Structures are given as structure tokens and as C-alpha cells.
Amino acid sequence: xxxxxxxxxxxxxxxxxxxxxxxxxxxxxxxxxxxxxxxxxxxxxxxxxxxxxxxxxxxxxxxxxxxxxxxxxxxxxxxxxxxxxxxxxxxxxxxxxxxxxxxxxxxxxxxxxxxxxxxxxxxxxxxxxxxxxxxxxxxxxxxxxxxxxxxxxxxxxxxxxxxxxxxxxxxxxxxxxxxxxxxxxxxxxxxxxxxxxxxxxxxxxxxxxxxxxxxxxxxxxxxxxxxxxxxxxxxxxxxxxxxxxxxxxxxxxxxxxxx
Length: 259
Prior knowledge:
Layout: H1 30-41, H2 52-65, H3 81-125, H4 129-135, H5 149-166, H6 178-183, E1 193-194, E2 199-203, E3 206-214, E4 223-232, E5 239-248
Antiparallel strand pairs: 1-3, 2-3, 3-4, 4-5
Helix pairs in contact: 1-2, 1-3, 2-3, 3-4
């Protein structure tokens, strides 16, 4: 009767893991493969910038996978280190692309918003309140290009006057856009100064921009705040800006403390 001696290499030591099991076999760095998966997911950062956090997490997992091996393993290269290096390259590539795309988008939209705001100020400075009103409408509510706007607005005012007189209310005073009236005091070719960089932001999924123009570079000039919205035409696929708010700029007063 013979007895078989148990081999010194037990089944539990055949595969080493990141928990630190001692083995002569090549260790496996699972964190490297996790880093690769996270790096691939971070590619969505080109669409949603917050996904950059996934890229940072991928780099952290990759750095953990590239940690030094135990001295007793000698020159053995753990499985997963090459994948970890690839994960770092992919995460950095996607992160750089997303940041570049985000910066380019903001620069382009900012330049467009500033140009449209200056064109609006130019139209309003000419005293043409009719076209200034049209620029403050989205493409859905604007009249067609073939519409004689002056005649239409004149008929609308006459109609409102007749309705008010028939109701015994007398003649109603004409409504005047005070902002347009303020801008009409300046010449059409007045050189407006960009008071601060154009702010591009999203508000409940709506792309908006805030442009603040100053009449001059003095300490307390007349400043105009123009809030624009970026719209894409559903049928034609074209995009355009429209002025949502045009009002004199005032500093917001914020209480230092609430009692």
C-alpha cells in the first residue's frame, strides 16, 4: 500500500491574484483589465464632459496595476500591465479630445453669440423697433421674409386702437421698448466694448449665452445684458441664435448673511 504525498503546489496557489497569494506562476493584475474597460467608457466624454471622471478613475486603476512586483517573484512581468499602459493611453487620448472639443465648441458659440448680439445692438441703435422685436423671437414665432413688417405692425396698432375705443377705454398709450429707446441714443457704428468674456451655459437642456456690452471703457459706463438662446431648426437642420432678454445690466446685490 502506497501513500501519495501532497504536492507543495496546492490548487489554491496555482493562480495568484491581487490579494497577494504566493506562487511561482505569473501574477494576474485584474485592475489592469478594469482600467481598460473604464478607459473605453471614458470615450463618451467627447459627448458628455463629466465622463472625464471615468477617465481619471481608469488612470488610477492602471497605476495600481503597474505597482512594483514582490521581490521574490524576480523579473516576472504580471499579466495585465500591458493592458494598464494601454488604458492610460486611451484615457489620456479621450480626455484630451473631449477637452479640445469642449473648448472649441465654447469658443465658436461664444464668437457667434457675440456677433449676433452686436448685430442686434446695431439694429436697435438705428431706432428700428420692429426689426428689433423680430430678432427677439424664435424662428417659430417670426413672420415670413415676404411679410411687410411695417404695414403689419401699423395695422396691428390701428386694430388695437379701434378695439380700445369701442370698449370705451380711450386711446391706449403705445408700448415702447425702453432698451431699444436707450440704444437709439447711440450711433449705429458705435464701438461697443465686450465687458467680460461671453458666458456659455446650459439651462435645462437649452444652450444659452450671456453677452454683456459696455458703451465705453470708463469706470461706470452704460452696460447692456443680452441673453441669447441657440436653436436648431427641426425641419431644415439649420441653427440660429435669438435674443431672449435684452436689458440694462445691473450688479446683483447678495446679502452677506441671512438673519
